[in-house]
Design a protein that fits this description.
Elements: E1 5-9, H1 15-30, H2 36-43, H3 48-55, E2 61-67, E3 70-79, E4 90-98, H4 107-121, E5 126-132, H5 136-144, E6 148-157, E7 160-170, E8 177-178, E9 187-191, H6 215-229, E10 234-236, E11 246-248, E12 262-265, E13 270-276, E14 280-286, E15 291-297, H7 299-304, H8 306-316, E16 325-328, H9 345-350, E17 358-360, E18 366-368, H10 370-380, E19 385-388, H11 403-409, E20 417-422
Length: 425
């Protein structure tokens, strides 16, 4: 049985359920820390009148999370009253509670995605919150979203002082997501380098495990990317090796990914993720069958048939190629892709007609049109609906990472953008 997860704005009718979630969750987590008198004094502050006043105040906003129609969590934002962050431009995450039964369901991620969107909608520059100093589970959750510990603050429960920690996150620009109408209503997106937590040469949405960046930042960026496409979903990705291997997505940990360059799924609630930095990301969907796929098509993988492998693996899960739609995302364009004179030979041995994907460049060397080659491979395989975004990763430094651009500049490493597709849970 599929569990239905939703988030929506709270109404006055939701206040009793919100109050129940607050009291139950707070007591489950913290009640053992306090004398019953202090706990009762603290909880007595939260009256129906107090809840109603905040819900009716436009300076506050509530969002509830439902599981199969029952409210099991909520988030509340409002004016900031915390130290260690600038007074101007800060919105405070006042409360964020889920019942234990909702832990691990994905609702926390969906509610946090709302918090970030609501803060941006209110033109906030940052989000601040306080969390109990010993609540390491909560701190790890906020760290995934790029929140940073700013310092101590005293939180009173009755007459009992707790040392909380103030955490905040600078918002910056929202991630930019390119979408392909050919893929219909399937959750998907080709993300660039905008909207993440990385700094320096890899600023800002670097999602590459192998980039050499602090993995905590990479995880935060991948969470941001996932929530821009399918809030609450987990990204599943392979260890890419420029092969033609396609696999069915599993529950493997990020540290033990299979060596492959494409993956497919018919499972809702996960996002297939492909990393690129000039190679072509290709997303696939058979909406009727409920099967999606994602492929990393560099020139080696494209020539070896990674897109053909992806289609065949989708068919094993019930897709039909005449129904599959595909989209080729941002990659290096022919104008930017100079190759040596021997480069075309394996393409021409495989198909003499591949000559049309090469043209002489201004320096007298051939230039390769990777995007058009991948589109042609898809058409030859029987894919009737193919869309190419026509975005050159090399030429658009502000929008995309590029391995070739970094190499030409002698940079020690480079970021990777991620492309995602998934079925809603």
């Amino acid at each position: 049985m599929t569990t239905a997860l939703t988030v929506r704005p709270a109404t006055a009718a939701d206040l009793p359920a919100i109050d129940h979630v607050f009291r139950t969750s707070f007591c489950d987590t913290f009640a053992h820390l306090y004398h019953p008198r202090d706990l009762a004094t603290f909880l007595a502050e939260f009256t129906p009148e107090a809840w109603g006043a905040e819900l009716g105040n436009p300076a506050y906003a509530f969002q509830v999370g439902e599981r199969d129609g029952d409210i099991v969590g909520y988030a509340k934002v409002g004016p900031n009253k915390l130290p260690h962050v600038p007074a101007d431009g800060t919105i405070e995450l006042k409360q964020f509670y889920l019942l234990k039964a909702a832990h691990g369901s994905g609702l926390a991620q969906r509610l946090m995605a709302w918090v970030i969107d609501e803060a941006r909608h209110r033109d906030a520059e940052r989000i601040a919150l306080s969390v109990f100093g010993e609540n390491h589970r909560a701190q790890a959750f906020y760290a995934q979203y790029g929140f940073v510990d700013r310092g101590p603050v005293t939180f009173m429960v009755g007459e009992h002082p707790d040392e909380d920690r103030v955490w905040s996150r600078e918002l910056g620009p929202a991630p930019r997501v390119w979408r392909a109408p050919a893929l219909g209503g399937v959750a998907h997106g080709f993300l660039g380098r905008i909207g993440g937590r990385s700094t320096g040469a890899m600023a800002s949405l670097n999602c590459g495990w192998g980039s050499g960046e602090d993995l905590r930042i990479v995880r935060a960026n991948r969470r941001i990317a996932a929530d821009a496409v399918l809030p609450g979903a987990r990204i599943v990705s392979p260890h890419q090796v420029h092969s033609a291997v396609a696999v069915v997505a599993g529950d493997w940990p990020d540290s033990d990914r299979p060596h492959a360059d494409a993956l497919v799924t018919d499972r809702p609630g996960i996002l297939l993720g492909i990393l690129t930095a000039d190679c072509a990301p290709v997303l696939f969907a058979d909406v009727e069958a409920g099967v999606v796929g994602a492929a990393h098509a560099g020139w080696k993988g494209a020539l070896a048939g990674v897109t053909d492998s992806t289609i065949a693996t989708m068919e094993r899960l019930g897709a039909r190629r005449e129904r599959i739609a595909a989209a080729v995302g941002p990659c290096i364009a022919r104008a930017s892709y100079e190759v040596d004179h021997a480069f075309p030979e394996p393409f021409l041995r495989d198909d003499p007609a591949a000559e049309r994907f090469f043209a002489e460049g201004p320096a007298g060397k051939p230039h390769f049109d990777l995007e058009s080659y991948v589109v042609a491979r898809l058409a030859t395989a029987g894919i009737r609906k193919v869309e190419a975004l026509g975005q050159d990763t090399y030429a658009q430094e502000d929008a995309f990472y590029s391995y070739r651009r970094a190499t030409h500049r002698g940079e020690p490493s480079y970021g990777r953008q991620i492309s995602l597709i998934g079925l809603p849970g």
